[in-house]
Amino acid sequence: QVQLVESGGGLVQAGGSLRLSCAASGRTFSRYAMGWFRQAPGKEREFVAGWSEGNTDYADSVKGRFTISRDNAKNTVYLQMNSLKPEDTAVYYCAARTRPTIGVFTTGAAYDYWGQGTQVTVSS
User: Fold this and answer.
1) DSSP string spanning the chain?
2) Are β-strands 90-97 and 118-123 bridged in parallel, bridged antiparallel, or unpaired?
3) What distance in Å separates the CA atoms of residue 22 and residue 95, rounded to the nearest whole number?
4) What is the CA radius of gyration of the chain?
């Protein structure tokens, strides 16, 4: 069983930055593929960024603005969000895949565990 706890969300003005953190339990965290997803009101959950075996992938809408990184010593994955826009407003979820993996997965069904989410609100 893996527990994921997100933090770092909040209210920020357009153009600002936030860094989300996701702390994970588990002794084999370094093997997990990790992802960030988000869900805005009235919309489906969407892929934001993923990390797997040293490879990363991003949704087109966040490329060049968001960066996913991880610190295996701290069992933590981060999402640095810069140049935030009002359309980035959503609940952001961290996800972990503990099954064997090849490549970065961009669909939610590929992940095994989810955090509770953290709200990010970008004002115009």
Assistant:
1) ---EEEE--EEEETT--EEEEEEE--TTGGG-EEEEEEE-TTS--EEEEEEETTEEEE-TTTTTTEEEEEEGGGTEEEEEE-S--GGG-EEEEEEEE-S---S---SGGG-SEE---EEEEEE-
2) antiparallel
3) 9
4) 13
The mean predicted confidence, pLDDT, of the chain is 95
pLDDT of residue 3: 95
Q: Which two tokens stand for residue 11?
A: 């209210």
Using alpha carbons only, give the angle 11, 104, 29 rounded to the nearest 5 degrees.
75
Check whether 111 has a pLDDT greater than 90.
Answer: yes
The encoded tokens of residue 57 equal 């992938």
- Which distant-in-sequence residues (6+ apart) come within 8 Å of 44 by Cβ? none
Report pLDDT digits (tens) over 53-109: 889 999 999 999 999 999 999 999 999 999 999 999 999 999 999 988 788 899 999
